[in-house]
Amino acid sequence: MNILAILTVRNEGAFLLEWLAHHRAAGFTDFLVFSNDCQDGTDRMLDRLDEMGLITHVRNDGPYGKGGIQFTAYKLAEKHALLAKADWAMTLDVDEFVNIHCGAHTVTDLIEALPQATAITLTWRLFGNAGIVRYEDKPVTETFQRAAPAVMHWPWRAAMFKTLYRNDGTYGKLGVHRPRQPDPVRIGQSRWFDGEGRELNRKFAGTRIFSNFGQSNYALAQLNHYALGAMESFVLKADRGRAVHSDQMLDLDYWVERNFNGDEDRTIQALSGPMRTELDRLMADPELARLHGEAVTWRKARFEELMLLESYRALFGRLLTTPPSRPLSKDAARFLTHFANLGRKTRQQ
């Protein structure tokens, strides 16, 4: 099978090789990667990986449509030959790591475990900051091992998923969390399953982007989401801006809704051996090793530049003073959900 990962990146060269090594070990066969406006050499690293035949790099330098940078990239991907030949496809970000719990921990094992599925939702498991302040050039998957509990009642972002789906023509467009524009003839034949192996209702085939609250969604697979990283890295993430909502600066609201550290989760280490083998092979290339080192140096220098500005210095200070987030009880979440539903009904009237 051709299993395609579609990735968009900007100024993330320090993390790129680990991400690629992990997902090669996890069984993805093809990588279509879009870059835009990189100052740290990410684009040059992607050029080198393209020369080596490991990925396909497309520069997404604009102009951008009303959907912004990421959706402009997806429109380019929809016309690309790699997507046309893919049997399965999935859109991902560089801070998201597919984590399969069945078989030999590969995507193929997950697909074989759910032979009737045409789409499989991999729910985020949010990995917190764990009090790590300084950025270091170490694998993300080995550095951050504190996560949200398997059962969360709030916030709804803790239940968001990304979709691995069969590229059989049922959907005409790519989306951040799920394929879009379903074919009205084919959609009735689609079958969606979640990371626990449960078949999902028809809403998931059409519009849903998050799993149900108050239950585990991870028995067969999950998506490790390292959205925060070290506090230094979060300051750089705020500087980079959001890929989708580029007009919204990252601040404490984003941090607090993701900084859960109550549970330890090392399950991704099941692929640490194959990942390390792939990573060592990539770093054995002198050009990739040089570019990786330059990206690391750029990150450290950029952080020091940003700390001279009051807004970023204030953000860093808030990160230092804010404690880890506390998961809400079922009753507290029910209280919030009650008003969320009332608000939705009011807007519909």
Task: Describe this structure in a few short sentences.
The chain is of the alpha/beta class and 349 residues long. The protein has one domain. Helix content is 38%, strand content 17%.
Write the layout of secondary structure elements.
Elements: E1 3-9, H1 13-25, E2 30-35, H2 42-51, E3 56-59, H3 68-78, H4 81-85, E4 88-92, E5 96-100, H5 107-113, E6 119-126, H6 140-143, E7 146-147, E8 161-166, E9 171-173, E10 180-182, E11 192-193, H7 202-206, E12 221-225, H8 231-240, H9 252-256, E13 263-264, H10 272-283, H11 286-306, H12 310-321, H13 330-348
Parallel strand pairs: 1-2, 1-4, 2-3, 6-11, 6-12
Antiparallel strand pairs: 4-8, 5-12, 6-8, 7-13, 9-10
Q: What would your notes on this structure say?
A:
Pfam families: Glyco_tranf_2_4. It comes from Thalassovita aquimarina. The protein is built from 13 helices and 13 strands. It is an alpha/beta fold. The chain has one domain (95-348). The strands form three sheets. Strands 1, 2, 3, 4, 5, 6, 8, 11 and 12 form a nine-stranded mixed sheet that branches. The chain has a two-stranded antiparallel ribbon with strand order 7-13. Strands 9-10 form a two-stranded antiparallel sheet. α1 (13-25) crosses α10 (272-283) and α2 packs antiparallel against α11. The radius of gyration is 20 Å and the shape is globular.
Number of strands: 13
Q: List the domain count as a whole number.
A: 1
Low-confidence stretches: none
Order of helices and strands: EHEHEHHEEHEHEEEEEHEHHEHHHH
What composes the largest sheet?
A: 9 strands, mixed
Shape: globular
Distance between the termini: 48 Å
Give the mean pLDDT: 96
Structure annotation, total helices: 13
The proportion of residues forming helix, as a percent range, comes to 25-40%
> In what range is the share of β-strand residues?
15-25%
The secondary structure category is alpha/beta
Radius of gyration: 20 Å
